[in-house]
């Protein structure tokens, strides 16, 4: 999980771990990228609005290294706005990989399970 | 052809001497030779003054045939008055006439005569390029007086030649309005018009495609060339811009920054081109889809008629202004969307820990799952409280921004001692930063420790807190110094000290990272923050509060002079007017 807000990381991490996920987290997207290697993770949760490297650019760079890892965006921004930017930058990104923050814990787990179970 | 015979016995006889002038005669002379001779005599008989009246065609003849007579009269000190119809064609002759005579102008004057104190000559049939075929002569007192009266009427109705000449020289060209059905001819006129741009050019294009055709025709190059001319002051294009013509627009932006382009969404079936404020080319499109300029062109109007040109200039302005307003609205809309997006992000983020950690704590208390340690629970509560505070702060900030923008920010002014207010704030901060690495210093510049201001104490505290928060945030280690200084008030507009006015300048100086130069120009605008933890509303609100108090707020980095920007920190200043007690 990559998000520049430490409190968001702390919270989401707790929710995920209690529900059986094992989580690595970064508040610095560039550090996350340099520590990334293919096959290390099943699922990446990316924030979009981050300093140094925004979620979309991080997505692009990770895709260059690993085309299989599932990537999901967790954003507090307006979805219509991010949708627009997504369509401009990455027309093939599917809508279901966008999750709006805040989200009830149960719902988050339900959506992430669906994504990680899908092929 | 004798009009009236008097004592003169023979027609056309020109034996004349002193004695004979007492004979009254009025007659019509025929034949260039006699008429010219009589006219010469008329001029040489003038003793004090002579008045002349000549049509537009007559003046060049007079100046060609009789300029020596005029020269001679002038040298004799004779007062010459002349009324004529000054036109573009006889302008030079009229100017010559003005060397000898006082000249006035009457439109479409057709009378040709001369009258001195004693004699009259009239030339009823003067034609351009011909000598005088006929001449009426009279020395009859009644006749002379009558002609003098006629002349005086003309003279009083006429306008000074200088005025008329100025008019002609200003609009040398006669008005024309041509309707052109031949596209080749219209194109040629159009290109020449583009070539003649000096001061201004307004071009309204019917479609995005039209811009490409204009470019191929060289029109855009002429516009760009003209825009570099020092006389060029107003070169504007209204055109629909899309991917196909974007390259041309880009070139215009880069190579001709003086050319303004406005993007229109509507396609018209007409093209309007107004050059130098005085010439119009307007064309209808017969085939908007055609590939070349000539093929696309329908019938065209080419004119310098003032009302026509004026009407199309107004039309262009109208389209221009309405699009400008539209652009502004769109810009405002973008700003609003940006505001909503950032506000949404900032409001939602602290809700994540508040919501999800509360859920965890709730299910822990209710069902014992998950099992949380006491320490862990405390940590969670701390995070919840911290984020609730952050949300609260943001809520207040957004409400303040709304108040500022809707001009409903109310100040509750009271008179209080600024120094003690600052000291209070600093004392609170010292408690908070007691174990930190930032030292807080307060230096009141005035020896007296009382600086009375009339202000909203709560709002002023908010401003000082905001500045201190920022200073401490960007100074991990070092000092933050607050100083106050009394000054004469300078009126910014007149650069003069305002009478009796004083102001206090409050400075908050830190030794932190300084202000990002990139951020500097929009430091006090909404959401101007490079920090990802902060709303970027604080300085906007603070500046608005200070301005509501008639003060000013600004900021600078502490090492403005030095080239390599070392981190010497930044200083924020604001002023408050001091109104002396009456």
The gist of it:
With 119 residues, chain A is mainly alpha-helical. Chain A has a single domain, classed as Response regulator (Rossmann fold), CATH 3.40.50.2300.
How would you describe what is shown here?
The complex is a heterodimer of chains A (119) and B (582). Chain A has a single domain (6-114), classed as Response regulator (Rossmann fold), CATH 3.40.50.2300. Chain A is 46% helix and 11% strand. Chain A has five helices and three strands; from the N terminus they run H-H-E-H-E-H-E-H. The two termini of chain A are 20 Å apart. The relative contact order of chain A is 0.17. The model of chain A has no long low-confidence stretch (mean pLDDT 87). Chain B contains 16 helices and 22 strands. The model of chain B is unreliable at 1-21 (pLDDT under 50). In chain B, helix 2 crosses helix 4 and helix 12 packs antiparallel against helix 13. Classes of the chains: A mainly alpha (119), B alpha+beta (582). The A-B interface holds A 4-5, 7-8, 10-12, 14-15, 18, 49-51, 75-78, 81, 100-102, 104-105 and B 337, 340-341, 344-346, 348-357, 359-360, 370, 380, 383, 386-387, 530, 532-533.
Please write out the topology:
The complex is a heterodimer of chains A (119) and B (582).
Chain A: H1 6-18, H2 29-35, E1 43-46, H3 55-65, E2 70-75, H4 79-89, E3 98-100, H5 105-117
Parallel strand pairs in A: 1-2, 2-3
Chain B: E1 26-30, H1 32-45, E2 49-54, H2 58-65, H3 67-75, E3 79-84, H4 91-97, E4 102-105, E5 113-116, E6 120-122, E7 134-138, H5 141-157, E8 159-160, H6 161-170, E9 177-180, H7 183-195, E10 200-204, H8 208-217, H9 219-228, E11 234-239, H10 246-255, E12 259-263, E13 270-275, E14 279-285, H11 293-296, E15 297-303, H12 306-367, H13 374-405, E16 413-417, H14 418-432, E17 438-444, E18 452-456, H15 457-473, E19 478-491, E20 496-510, H16 538-548, E21 553-557, E22 570-578
Parallel strand pairs in B: 2-3, 3-4, 10-11, 11-12, 17-19
Antiparallel strand pairs in B: 1-7, 2-5, 4-8, 5-6, 6-7, 9-15, 10-13, 13-14, 14-15, 16-18, 19-20, 20-22, 21-22
């Amino acid at each position: 999980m990559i998000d520049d807000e430490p409190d968001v990381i702390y919270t989401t991490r707790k929710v995920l771990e209690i529900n059986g996920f094992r989580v690595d987290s970064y508040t610095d997207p560039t550090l996350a990228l340099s520590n990334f290697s293919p096959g290390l993770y099943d699922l990446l949760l990316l924030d979009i609005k981050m300093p140094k490297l925004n979620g979309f650019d991080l997505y692009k760079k990770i895709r260059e290294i690993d085309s299989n890892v599932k990537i999901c965006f967790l954003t507090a921004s307006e979805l219509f706005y991010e949708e627009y930017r997504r369509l401009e930058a990455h027309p093939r990104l599917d809508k279901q990989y966008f999750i709006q923050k805040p989200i009830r814990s149960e719902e988050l787990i339900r959506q992430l399970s669906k994504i990680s179970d899908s092929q | 052809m004798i009009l009236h015979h008097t004592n003169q016995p023979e027609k056309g006889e020109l034996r004349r001497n002193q004695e004979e002038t007492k004979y009254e005669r009025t007659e019509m002379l025929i034949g260039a030779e006699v008429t010219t001779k009589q006219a010469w005599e008329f001029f040489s008989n003038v003793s004090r003054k002579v008045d002349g009246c000549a049509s537009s065609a007559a003046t060049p003849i007079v100046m060609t045939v009789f300029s020596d007579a005029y020269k001679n009269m002038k040298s004799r000190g004779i007062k010459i008055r002349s009324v004529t119809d000054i036109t573009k064609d006889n302008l030079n002759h009229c100017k010559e006439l003005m060397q000898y005579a006082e000249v006035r102008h009457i439109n479409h004057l057709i009378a040709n005569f001369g009258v001195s104190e004693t004699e009259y000559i009239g030339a009823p049939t003067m034609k351009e390029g011909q000598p005088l075929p006929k001449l009426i002569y009279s020395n009859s007192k009644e006749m002379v007086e009558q002609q003098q009266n006629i002349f005086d009427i003309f003279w009083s109705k006429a306008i000074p030649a200088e005025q008329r000449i100025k008019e002609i020289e200003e609009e040398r060209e006669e008005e024309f309005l041509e309707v052109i059905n031949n596209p080749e001819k219209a194109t040629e006129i159009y290109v020449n018009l583009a070539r003649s741009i000096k001061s201004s050019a307004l071009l309204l294009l019917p479609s995005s495609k039209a811009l490409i055709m204009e470019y191929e025709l060289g029109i855009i190059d002429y516009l760009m060339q003209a825009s570099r001319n020092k006389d060029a002051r107003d070169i504007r294009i209204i055109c629909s811009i899309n991917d196909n013509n974007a390259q041309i627009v880009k070139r215009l932006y880069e190579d001709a920054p003086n050319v303004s382009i406005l993007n229109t969404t509507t396609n018209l079936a007409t093209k309007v081109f107004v050059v130098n404020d005085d010439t119009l080319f307007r064309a209808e499109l017969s085939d908007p889809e055609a590939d070349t300029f000539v093929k696309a062109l329908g019938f065209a109007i080419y004119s310098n008629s003032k009302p026509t040109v004026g009407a199309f200039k107004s039309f262009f302005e109208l389209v221009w202004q309405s699009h400008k307003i539209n652009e502004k609205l769109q810009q405002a809309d973008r700003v609003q969307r940006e505001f909503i997006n950032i506000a949404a992000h900032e409001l939602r983020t602290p809700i994540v820990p508040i919501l999800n950690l509360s859920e965890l704590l709730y299910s822990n208390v209710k069902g014992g799952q998950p099992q949380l340690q006491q320490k862990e629970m405390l940590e969670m509560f701390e995070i919840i409280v911290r984020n609730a505070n952050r949300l609260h702060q943001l809520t207040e900030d957004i409400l303040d921004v709304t108040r500022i923008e809707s001009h409903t920010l109310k100040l509750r002014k009271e008179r209080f001692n600024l120094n003690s207010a600052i000291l209070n704030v600093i004392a609170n901060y010292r408690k908070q930063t007691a174990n930190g690495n930032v030292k807080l210093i307060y230096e009141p510049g005035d020896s007296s420790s009382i600086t009375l201001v009339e202000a909203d104490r709560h709002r002023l505290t908010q401003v000082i807190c905001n500045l201190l928060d920022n200073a401490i945030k960007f100074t991990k280690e070092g000092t933050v110094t607050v100083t106050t200084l009394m000054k004469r008030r300078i009126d910014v507009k007149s650069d003069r000290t305002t009478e009796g006015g004083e102001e206090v300048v409050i400075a908050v100086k830190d030794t932190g990272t300084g202000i990002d130069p990139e951020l500097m120009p929009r430091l006090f605008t909404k959401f101007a923050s490079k920090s990802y933890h902060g709303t970027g509303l604080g300085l906007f609100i603070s500046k608005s509060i200070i301005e509501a108090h008639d003060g000013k707020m600004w900021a600078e980095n502490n090492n403005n002079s030095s080239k390599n920007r070392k981190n010497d920190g930044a200083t924020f200043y604001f002023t408050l007017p001091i109104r002396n007690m009456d």
